């Protein structure tokens, strides 16, 4: 993801809530926990059940940003469940559990539901929530992630956005498949994840239907309504390649199209490095307002027009599509592990540059290593444990990419490719931790890598030159002429970090 983000101010309050609740033991009756157990964001997600599918039915009016909907959640209790929480911020009108009316209460983004009967562990359960609201006016803990535009809206954000348009279990640990049907006034385009299965019109309104059949984290589900030029072509491997460009891009349109239309080429390149593309569709959406970041929405990254203000930008397209493997297919088990998303996506930019002759990965490593002196605060943020306020700090991206190149220097090209391809294959559609990745890297390479990872990910300060740290002597001074890729990467990362 490319962005600068203010994280949830209510984390401390959520933490207190989570600590007060004790999940029931398996086989006993009790409420599910109001959090998924994430150290950085204890109130995110919920315990007591596992979601397999979301069916989201919405009616959205861009003129006043009014949204009404019904979401059906298919889930399986992981304990005998007497009550459970959903993450949701809009006004709830009713809740039904297994077809029966259920009691509920709402506080911030916590929707607590008490079903009329205990839900047996392992049973099939359905939660049907009816709701409405004006998402752009809803603020919780200082957050208003819903983006209203002059012609519609963007439900795009990380780590929080889903609570502003559908109820769910909002943590990457609980992935599910999605059917999204949104009814909007005729002439308004509506984009979401996966494949557009069918559209229909009645009485001045059009319903757009989207389906994704691969496990998806809730924050990677998105909705974009507005005036877009849309197209569906054949992409890499014969898949649907869906693009949407705001009709208001103006002078940015050519550069945006010159970049995003190369997505199938990027996916083929990344597949050669990482293995099979994990999803059923591909594409991209470029907005013209309201957005100052890019996000790796599953199958369809969303880009701010600002990435194309200096011309075509392949760095951001490579970055967001690399996330389809790192972040989307293999997601973070907790948000502390964000390096597994951003470090790998950033290093993919370096590999693209190496492939296209605009700077080798070693040249880029040398440049960034030399450009940050030892006393630079950049070296004080730990990619392996950045803290909740620094989840999207530039060190997670740039020092994160440098970590992977240092690993390459220590284990070699063949071993690194084997490590990475094994990781995305073994962890496909699930989650992972940094510790699991380190263990795999040692197992596949046959090398002891404690010093390398401890130094790069978990130790403040500039890593020293040395064989064990993967820092060659050449990195101590910048090249006279930095690689051509640096200009584009730096412009992209400047927008990312708001510098």
Low-confidence stretches: 4-26
The total strand number stands at 22
| Biggest sheet strand line-up | 6-5-9-3-2-12-15-14
Instruction: Output the CATH topology of the domain at 1-141 and 163-184 and 210-220.
Output: Immunoglobulin-like
Tell me about the largest β-sheet.
8 strands, mixed
Q: Give the termini distance in whole angstroms.
A: 16 Å
In round numbers, the mean pLDDT is 93
- Portion of residues within helices: 25-40%
What is the gyration radius calculated from CA atoms?
23 Å
Shape: globular
Count, helices? 11
Annotated CATH homologous superfamily of the domain at 1-141 and 163-184 and 210-220: tricorn interacting facor f3 domain
Strand fraction equals 25-35%
User: Pairing-aware structural class of the strands and helices?
Assistant: alpha+beta
The CATH class assignment of the domain at 1-141 and 163-184 and 210-220 is: Mainly Beta
Helices and strands, with pairings:
Blueprint: H1 11-20, E1 29-31, E2 49-61, E3 66-77, E4 80-87, E5 91-97, E6 100-101, E7 103-107, E8 110-114, E9 125-133, E10 147-149, E11 152-155, E12 176-185, E13 189-191, E14 195-202, E15 205-216, E16 223-226, E17 228-234, E18 240-246, H2 253-260, H3 263-274, E19 282-287, E20 302-304, H4 314-322, E21 330-332, H5 339-355, H6 361-371, H7 394-411, H8 413-426, E22 430-432, H9 434-445, H10 450-458, H11 485-497
Parallel strand pairs: 1-4, 2-12, 18-19, 19-20, 21-22
Antiparallel strand pairs: 2-3, 3-9, 4-8, 5-6, 5-9, 7-8, 10-11, 11-16, 12-15, 13-16, 14-15, 17-18
Helix pairs in contact: 3-4, 4-5, 5-7, 6-7, 7-8, 7-10, 8-9
